[in-house]
Amino acid sequence: MREGLLRRAGLAAVALxxxxxxxxxxxxxxxxxxxxxxxxxSIDPASAIGGPSACPRPDAVWAELVTLVPHERLEAxxxxxxxxxxxxxxxxxxxxxxxxxxxxxVREYQDESHDCAYRARIxxxxxxxxLDPAELAPPPPPPVAPVPPPPPVVTPPAELPPAARLDLxxxxxxxxxPDDRVGQLGLELRWSGxxxxxxxxxxxxxxxxxxxxVGGVRLxxxxxxxxxxxxxxxxxxxxxxxxxxxxxxxxxxERALDLANPRSQTALELGLRAAVGVHATRGRLAPFAxxxxxxxxWPPSVFALPAGTVGRTPLLWIGxxxxxxxxxx
Length: 329
Fold this sequence. Notes:
Strand order of the largest sheet: 5-6-7-9-10-11-12-15
Oligomer: single chain
Order of helices and strands: HHEHHEEEHEEEEEEEEEEE
Low-confidence stretches: 1-41
Radius of gyration: 59 Å
Helix content: 10-25%
């Protein structure tokens, strides 16, 4: 009996030693890999988007969606979100508005133009954001229209003086000399030409006859002056100033009124004329005014029978003219 107890105790010790060795081997053995996770159920893309919408149509939304998210990732996300139920996305056309339901999110948009292609793009962006916001790349910034360079500043060319001017005005003349002082009225016609600052000019006067007294003899005097020279211009925005220098000549006719034998005498008077003037530059017809002075170095003698030479004509003529100037381009 004692031998039986000893045999049982030995078997138990052997069993304990074997269990310990097995445990040690199990601890030293490498850990086995975990079983692979179950892949997300696949889903038919044609049935992933549905809903009673004709604008936009579900297939148009799907066509836009695959351009935003890679096809494989899109199917995986649709399968993971769907959980075996379709459709995952629903489009509802409400007329002016349309509603998009995706992954439990709802958004309504308004489109009065009823542009179905535009609606499909907007719905696809919303679906992509709802399914996988990390995968959707931000849209590229809108193209920046190039700023056109400013137009070149064009300086208008300076306005040239007219090709010609014709001045007509009333004139008054006063003659001063040692033997003769006289005042005359009449008309002056003057022409000037050239586009440049310096150009030619010429003028003539028609004066009324005047009675005066020279050396105690009463005379009736006619005078017809003409001149030709150059004009220097200085044009401004509103007025043009000018100066003239010319050689003058005048035909003088005189007749004694109180003599028993009155006779007419004609003489030629030569002198040097200078003038300054101003006229407006607005319009073809503009007013003008001028002052002139003529120096006669050798005034003609006044001869009347039977008295003979009674004196000389004026040494200096001072005049003023005002009228209208007609320009020719």
